[in-house]
């Protein structure tokens, strides 16, 4: 497990080229392009490196182009504002001279105020549930050998689904899913790092939620899918090396796009983060490009 955690920490340990300019490596995490969660986490890290004594409370990003897993990514941070309460940053992620992702992030101090939250769903705890890797190994024989290793590779984030779906034989079902997640080992006491890793992990499985009612999956050759944007709000401090419940749903899909929402809870029921993402989900018979 140490190697996958070290790889994730290396991804987020950006190299500062000069003030407000950072460089991050790329990895083949899922698929043939840069994983959206990677560029999301790295962008938040770049923004956070330019802020002192304030913590990220929201981010909004747009995926503009597919990322090249064989090339590093340059992150340009623009300091938009440092006010009495909020600090705002814009980040451009660049490869081969083109912007592949843009992020707006806001940072603030913790403060007391009016507080309420939605209740945590009543679900089975993580103990005893098979994790995603174990579930993938059960169906790995259905894959060509050349992609089997990548499909079954251990990830730095352990995910234990409560409603596992066979991606090779999906059946129409309610657009709701839950999984428990945590890092594979203990992480340093760095709040920004935990936020960046949760941003990284929040992109796993989210977009596929809108596919559930239609009985389709990423593994089908007639499905064209891509993340279009990603928004996230951090409500409370948390640790991503402790179990978190990721509750996801999809209220609507239309015009070749599906909207997905997520709420992330600690085991004690505290809602620590919320997520929203729109994803492209087309049948290839309808269109080949987007």
Gist of the model:
With 290 residues, the protein is an alpha+beta fold. It has helices at residues 2-12, 36-48, 132-139, 145-152, 191-201, and strands spanning 15-18, 21-24, 55-63, 73-82, 86-95, 98-108, 157-161, 176-183, 223-227, 229-234, 244-254, 257-266, 271-283.
Structural class: alpha+beta
Approximate shape:
globular
Please give the share of residues in helix: 10-25%
User: Taking all residues together, what is the mean pLDDT?
Assistant: 92
Q: At the third CATH level, what is the topology name?
A: Porin
Quaternary state, please? single chain
Total DSSP E strands: 13
Distance between the termini: 38 Å
Radius of gyration: 19 Å
The total tally of domains equals 1
Largest sheet: 13 strands, antiparallel
Order of helices and strands: HEEHEEEEHHEEHEEEEE
Low-confidence stretches: none
Number of helices: 5
Query: What is the CATH architecture assignment?
Result: Beta Barrel
Task: Tell me the name of the CATH homologous superfamily.
Answer: Acyl-CoA thioesterase, double hotdog domain
């Amino acid at each position: 497990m140490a190697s996958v955690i070290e790889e994730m920490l290396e991804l987020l340990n950006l190299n500062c080229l000069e003030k407000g300019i950072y460089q991050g490596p790329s990895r083949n995490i899922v698929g043939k392009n840069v994983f959206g969660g990677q560029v999301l986490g790295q962008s938040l890290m770049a923004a956070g490196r330019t802020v002192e004594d304030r913590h990220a409370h929201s981010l909004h990003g747009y995926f503009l182009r597919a990322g090249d897993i064989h090339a590093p990514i340059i992150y340009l941070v623009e300091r938009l504002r440092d006010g009495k309460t909020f600090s705002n940053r814009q980040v451009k992620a660049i490869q081969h001279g083109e912007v592949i992702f843009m992020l707006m992030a806001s940072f603030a101090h913790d403060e007391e105020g009016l507080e309420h939250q939605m209740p945590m769903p009543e679900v089975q705890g993580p103990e005893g549930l098979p994790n995603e890797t174990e579930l993938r190994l059960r169906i790995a024989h259905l894959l060509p050998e050349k992609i089997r290793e990548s499909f079954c590779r251990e990830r730095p984030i352990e995910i234990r689904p409560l409603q596992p779906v066979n991606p090779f034989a999906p059946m129409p079902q309610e657009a709701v899913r839950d999984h428990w997640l945590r890092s594979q080992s203990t992480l340093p006491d760095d709040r920004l790092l935990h936020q960046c890793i949760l941003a990284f992990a929040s992109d796993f499985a989210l977009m596929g939620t809108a596919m559930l009612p239609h009985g389709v999956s990423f593994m089908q050759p007639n499905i064209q899918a891509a993340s279009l944007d990603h928004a996230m709000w951090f409500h409370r401090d948390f640790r991503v090396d402790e179990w978190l419940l990721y509750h996801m749903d999809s209220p609507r899909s239309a015009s070749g796009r599906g909207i997905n929402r997520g709420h992330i809870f600690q085991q004690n029921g505290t809602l620590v983060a919320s997520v929203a993402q729109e994803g492209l989900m087309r049948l290839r018979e309808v269109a080949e490009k987007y």
